[in-house]
Amino acid sequence: MQALLRAVISFRDERDWAQYHNPKDLAISLTLEAAELLEIFQWKSPEQVQAMKSDEQACRRVKEELGDVLIYALNLANEFTFDPAEVVLEKLAINGRKYPVEKAKGRADKYSAYEE
Amino acid sequence: MQALLRAVISFRDERDWAQYHNPKDLAISLTLEAAELLEIFQWKSPEQVQAMKSDEQACRRVKEELGDVLIYALNLANEFTFDPAEVVLEKLAINGRKYPVEKAKGRADKYSAYEE
Amino acid sequence: MQALLRAVISFRDERDWAQYHNPKDLAISLTLEAAELLEIFQWKSPEQVQAMKSDEQACRRVKEELGDVLIYALNLANEFTFDPAEVVLEKLAINGRKYPVEKAKGRADKYSAYEE
Amino acid sequence: MQALLRAVISFRDERDWAQYHNPKDLAISLTLEAAELLEIFQWKSPEQVQAMKSDEQACRRVKEELGDVLIYALNLANEFTFDPAEVVLEKLAINGRKYPVEKAKGRADKYSAYEE
What we know:
The structure is a homotetramer. The first copy, chain A, is mainly α. Chain A has helices at about 1-15, 25-40, 45-50, 55-80, 85-100, 100-105. Chains in contact: A-B, A-C, A-D, B-C, B-D, C-D. The interface of A and D includes residues 20, 28 and 29 of A.
């Protein structure tokens, strides 16, 4: 993760783009890329969505948009000097306390009100 | 990255939640979390946004929402059996060809039409 | 539409809130409310979605979030002194030229690449 | 509003597109259009945002994306047989009780935690 963060920040600094990066605009950009990723699945039925996993063009589009999402997420983590790995692990821990295994497993109704 | 991905997938499987995860709903969830992250900066001026970097409560909120975004991004990468590190590095390469350093560096007007 | 716009602007001015409204933050708010509306359908299958039309609580939630979306849309139209009715009719005209009836009707494949 | 709703539904029915419209996909589409609207303001400073109000090209882009947002909002209202005007007026009433004039007016700090 640290190596990826360095690659993302190098890319930004090689082009002298840090001047444009601030948390609010990075959060906006992250939202816009998430929407571009969601757009790939717009109007698709559950069957069509599963079929996309073996469609080369669909996979390529998803990979590219997911890349944009991750790049902005890493840039945002950097703004607050967060360790991306720590960000994930800490939230998994919080989620683990909110949804302990013994309560969550096997309860189909869990997902009717699920909210990570 | 691989270790983080395994942690995220284990969390899902311990609770038997893979049955609810499909690309479209994961992309929706990623968009919703990105919006919750953006909400932290709603109405804030550029000055207020910079001040948040040294505000403990704001930092904690950003860290948690960023965690949710990254967790869904990793779950989505897993759906398509992507290596998250590869997803980032490949998109940086694509962006590098689109915005070569010699063209991008120092050009303040670059950001008026900037689109990663 | 004009009456609705006046009601929305009066609400804002009674509270002296125009000082906080600017196009960018209104566009952010509109995106956040759209996400809250989408959240109502998170994880829901096509069958569950149709069932929501006759579920009183679901209908109430949708109505409220849709209200927030429309209120911000009207505030944004006001920022640019647009007539909301004209905004809709002009875009329908643009869409009509892009998707003429003779070409669009009956073509099931239209929606595989549909983009309004 | 009723006339606008009829225009939007006629457009859909002339092309036989009702078959593709369901609440969840309409909510997704509304979110995607809100993001396209927000994108117009990506990276823009408060000063640049105000300047856009007198920029013909920017105004045209905002008008078109706002049109898409309103069209999907009207389609979604129709799915639940809501009267769009009622949707707005009821939410203004709810907001009015949440933020009574006597409490809200003049309080600059109101917007630090403002949430419609």
